[in-house]
Design brief:
Pfam families: Glucosamine_iso, Methyltransf_3. Its EC number is 3.1.1.31. 32% of the residues lie in helices and 20% in strands. It has 485 residues and is of the alpha/beta class. It has two domains: 263 residues, Rossmann fold; 207 residues, Rossmann fold (3-Layer(aba) Sandwich), CATH 3.40.50.150. It is elongated, with a radius of gyration of 25 Å. The chain binds the ligand O=C1O[C@H](COP(=O)(O)O)[C@@H](O)[C@H](O)[C@H]1O. The site of ligand LXAUTJHC has 15 residues, from helix 2 and strand 5. The site of the ligand O=C1O[C@H](COP(=O)(O)O)[C@@H](O)[C@H](O)[C@H]1O has 15 residues, from helix 2 and strand 5.
Length: 485
Amino acid sequence: MTRRDVVVHPDATVLAEAVAARLLTRLLDLQSHRNPLHVVLTGGTVGIASLAAIGRSPLRDAVDWSGVHLWWGDERFVPEGHADRNETQAREALLDALDALPADNVHPVPALSADVPTPDAAAAAYARSLAEFAPPGLLAPRFDVTLFGMGPDGHVASLFPGHDTVSVTGVAAVGVEDSPKPPPQRVSLTFDAIRASREVWVVAAGAEKARAVASALAGDPVEQTPAAGALGTERTLWLVDAAATQDAAPGAPATAPASGEGVDPVVGWASVDAWFERLAPQDVGLLDAARSAQDAGLPDIAVSALQGKLLHLLAQGVGARRVLELGTLGGYSTLWLVRALPADGRVVTLEISPEHARVATETFVRAGVDGQVDVLVGPATQTLAQLAADGVEPFDLVFVDADKQSLAAYVDAVAGLVRPGALVVVDNVVRGGAVVDAHHPDERVQGVRRFVESVAQDARWDATVLQTVGSKGYDGFALLRRADA
Ligand SMILES: O=C1O[C@H](COP(=O)(O)O)[C@@H](O)[C@H](O)[C@H]1O
């Protein structure tokens, strides 16, 4: 699952003030239970304006700066004190005024000098500094907040579209020789280091960024839009102004409402999901499942954390011991389900794609649940027929999250595989409201319509539909109970 929360502010000025307020609040909050904190600063217009806004805020003195370490996501490779350096700009905007910030807590990327003559040398030295604060197994500290600006081309830090540096792994920092944006020589964190971040905040303002914002939020390949790969392990937050969202979120308003709140529907729903996620915290295994699916290039169509928790609670609610899933994908929903089962419980999950099945299987091994999950590869219609022919023990709960065209056939087959009173949950049946359009050209919409029509006339099922909004947009679940025999 690659969830990005998006908050839209009316303009760049309000955005910079909001980033400042949000960062100060986050630092204060984190300092109540974690020390030290590691924050990655960004250069760029809004990034520096945000630092200046922090400098003006009375709250800045509420932060214990002695417990904050500052790093940079990228640096322009010029001599120390040069006006182009992100460090120089950050010092002028804020750092020089922070008397309580120890000099040793500031970790700039080494500047061009006789001792550090190349971007590669600076990157190597910067990587060594990062390693000093890295936990075992990581190349860099687990940054609490990593701030990024983003260029109109979708670059973050100094990772530019189409450049080899985007795919460099195994090191924390990389030298850049041919930046399309001046100056050409730079140093950048790599994605390996960026993804050590607990939270990544991408800040973007202006209509010239709108295409890149839309592309990143759509999850386009990082080679094309590096900002799409800027992800935190706990949260990825996009803080943008209205102009930068005009190409984003199809179906959403082109601009934010004129009110100060300025959150468009999809964005607002995602933020609400994020707030409620305290009820559905994802542990390392779930985060790993989401990350592995993303790294393997699987489609970003898994359930959200809150939806996964819903499946978990439903499985517990019906006292499920045996669960059938149609559509494993990367195993994210499977993990939520298997964790609801007793020690002798089992999930049988069906997946048509051998590659998806491989990714999911590896995830189950790492999560330690492979002994409770059977991944059956092949077209679900055939596998369901085989399960029936094998006379498998009936299932207590079924989650159907496979292709919508065949829904009616799947649910018909499932009717013969479950116990009386079993619960069947079918995902994505509202489809942004398109389901009410009898002439809709999308075969998935027609597949859902055929399924609903057939269930409505099938005495074996008692059913309802729950419309939902959230980080997955506007959709819904069908809930079916197998009638008692
Ligand atoms: O060169 C850089 O540009 C980006 C974005 O800057 P912006 O002025 O378009 O907001 C910035 O994030 C990066 O740190 C900087 O080196």
